[in-house]
Amino acid sequence: xxxxxxxxxxxxxxxxxxCSGYLVRGGGVNLWLDAGPGTLAQLQRYIDxxxxxxxVLTHAHPDxxxxxxxxxIAVRYLRKRVGVxxxxxxRVRQLVEEVNGDIGRSCDWDAVASGDGARLGGLTLSFxxxxxxxxxxxxxxxxxxGASLGYSAxxxxxWSLDRLGADLDMALCEASLxxxxxxxxxxxxxxxxxxxxxxxxxxxxVVTHFPPGVDPARQxxxxxxxxxxxxLCASQGATFEVRADG
Length: 246
Known about the structure:
The chain has helices spanning about 40-45, 65-80, 90-100, 190-200, 215-225; strands spanning about 1-5, 20-25, 30-35, 55, 85-90, 105-110, 115-120, 125-130, 135-145, 150, 170-175, 205-210, 230-235, 240. The chain is α/β, with parallel strands linked by helices. It has one domain (about 1-240): 4-Layer Sandwich (Metallo-beta-lactamase, Chain A), CATH 3.60.15.10. The protein starts with a strand and ends in a 5-residue tail after the last strand. About 50% of the residues are buried.
């Protein structure tokens, strides 16, 4: 399974930046994981829109879903598709329909909640409610006979990566805050991200979701200190191999 970073900036895009979005390739399918502003353009650098097999949108903050609006216009009117599977909390579907109208035949859109699961090709998806408002769903992705990836989406520290289950080969975890900002908002610092990944027994950790002005290298170092071993750092265009042997 491969994880490609389409964008990793949190809250709003800085100059030249793209907000949260990732392409997961495995199990014979292509999955778009979060669709923040700018990610639709980046997605098309790697796959054609006709090659997209499914979409997961974790919550209703626009830095994680806004490009679903323009993608839906594309597959409804210009690059016509029928029944593309989409999973999100109910509120995200409501917002898309408030702007674009009935999602019609183009999408098979399921509103999911904590504890729900889904299948896409050779991938199994499972969802867990995080410590973040509005309703936000972390997701675990297991490839048949292969590796497992956990994505925290946005969360505060009153949620844990172990709620996605044991033996995660890789965790993609937000690290929005500096240490002195901890518990100021419902997000994680890099230190907290590293600590949660260590407690959950994660094999590899990738930190992401850096607001403009936050130094990714500093976040990577803080996370590694808490994790107890080297940590990977998301950057636009980076691709990571998710391996069952870590």
